Amino acid sequence: MIDAILPKYDFGEVHAIHVHRSPASVLGAVKRVTPAETPWFRLLIGLRALPARLLGGSAWQFSLDRPVLEQFLDAGFSLLAEEADRELVVGRIGQFWRMGGSATPRIVGPEEFRAFDRPGYAKVALNFLRGEPLADVAL
């Protein structure tokens, strides 16, 4: 679904891990995980906010006990697609290179996200996708 929402891009990155749980439980965990459970996430977000804090600007403040996804959606990301037990796609449009952030154009749905082409802005989309089950291998 992410390929239909963002068919052209300048940079892509893929990570994969096999999890021995049902797709519903994994995507449920993605929706529930909090910054308190993810020290590396807290460190990286803290580093990203450091220049704005040092210069007296506003920085994105995360609550440790609210789900990361919920906070992303509150901060300007949009839920662009979701297929139960298979894939979840979120995205945002902004000027991510600006020290204090930028006004985020509010988009409603994948069509607006796909069609947005105002100069001086970038699009970011990320997904969590259930891959094909791995075959069991006996060694």
Structure description:
The protein has 139 residues and is α+β, with helices and mostly antiparallel strands. It has one domain. It is built from five helices and three strands. The protein has helices spanning 2-5, 23-32, 39-54, 68-74, 109-115, and strands at 78-83, 87-94, 122-129. Strands 1-2-3 form a three-stranded antiparallel beta sheet. It starts with a helix and ends in a 10-residue tail after the last strand.
Give the secondary structure arrangement, pairings included.
Blueprint (H helix, E strand, L loop, with lengths): L1 H4 L17 H10 L6 H16 L13 H7 L3 E6 L3 E8 L14 H7 L6 E8 L10
Antiparallel strand pairs: 1-2, 2-3
Structural class given helices, strands, pairing?
alpha+beta
Q: Roughly what is the average pLDDT, rounded to an integer?
A: 83
Give the C-alpha Rg.
17 Å
User: Biggest sheet: strands side by side, in what order?
Assistant: 1-2-3
Note poorly predicted spans.
none
**Count of domain modules:** 1
Please report which band the strand proportion falls in: under 5%, 5-15%, 15-25%, 25-35%, 35-45% or over 45%.
15-25%
Distance from first to last alpha carbon? 36 Å
SSE pattern, N- to C-terminal: HHHHEEHE
- Shape descriptor: globular
**Helical segment count:** 5
The helical percent reads 25-40%
State the total count of DSSP E strands: 3
Query: Could you give a short account of the major beta sheet?
Result: 3 strands, antiparallel
